[in-house]
Amino acid sequence: QHILVLHGPNLNLLGMREPEVYGRETLADLDVKLYALAESLAVRVSSFQSNSEGALIDALHNARLTCSGVIINPGAYTHSSYAIRDAIAAINLPTIEVHLSNIHAREAFRSTSLIAPVCVGQIAGLGMIGYELALRALATRLGV
Ligand code: DQA
């Protein structure tokens, strides 16, 4: 089974970006953890980061034929992107939304996710472990 992990805008700056909110670990550190877990679960993971809404949508469309599940942190597009929501609905793959921070405990605009209604579930506020939990959940769901 092949799972796409999509990292949205500004997550390339993890480690130096508001470390009091997002921690000091980098996106590369996160990907290392995910690849290691994927190996132990015997699933394949591909990770992709983009700051561009269109590139994230293209990646979702490409996943339609090559992947069996998606983990996505859409960054601030969570709160604004009908287009990413529609792309997730269109590809019909089990998708889990992950946020490093607890979006429900921050500014009011962050507590609304346009993405959550088309996802299997949402994990927020647990830092990088949230991605590992999402990967385990997808693997279980896919019967791996
Ligand atoms: C985030 C939360 C979003 O509100 C924010 O815009 C991000 C990161 C998170 O992982 O906590 O870029 O998705």
Automatic annotation (TrEMBL):
Spell out the NCBIfam families in the cross-references: aroQ (TIGR01088), PRK05395.1-2 (NF003805), PRK05395.1-3 (NF003806), PRK05395.1-4 (NF003807)
Query: In this record, what's one Pfam family?
Result: DHquinase_II
Query: What keywords are annotated for this sequence in UniProt?
Result: Amino-acid biosynthesis, Aromatic amino acid biosynthesis, Lyase
Origin, by domain of life? Bacteria
Q: Which InterPro entries match?
A: DHquinase_II, DHquinase_II_CS, DHquinase_II_sf
Picking any one GO biological process from the record gives: chorismate biosynthetic process
Signal peptide residue numbers = none
Instruction: Look up keyword Lyase and say if it applies.
Output: yes
Protein family membership: Belongs to the type-II 3-dehydroquinase family.
Q: What is its EC number?
A: 4.2.1.10
Quote the catalytic activity from the record: 3-dehydroquinate = 3-dehydroshikimate + H2O
Pathway stated in the Swiss-Prot or TrEMBL entry: Metabolic intermediate biosynthesis; chorismate biosynthesis; chorismate from D-erythrose 4-phosphate and phosphoenolpyruvate: step 3/7
Fetch the SUPFAM superfamilies from UniProt: Type II 3-dehydroquinate dehydratase
What this protein is called in its record is: 3-dehydroquinate dehydratase
For substrate, which residues are the binding ones? 73, 79, 86, 100-101, 110
Keyword Cytoplasm part of the UniProt annotation: no
* HAMAP family (alphabetical): AroQ (MF_00169)
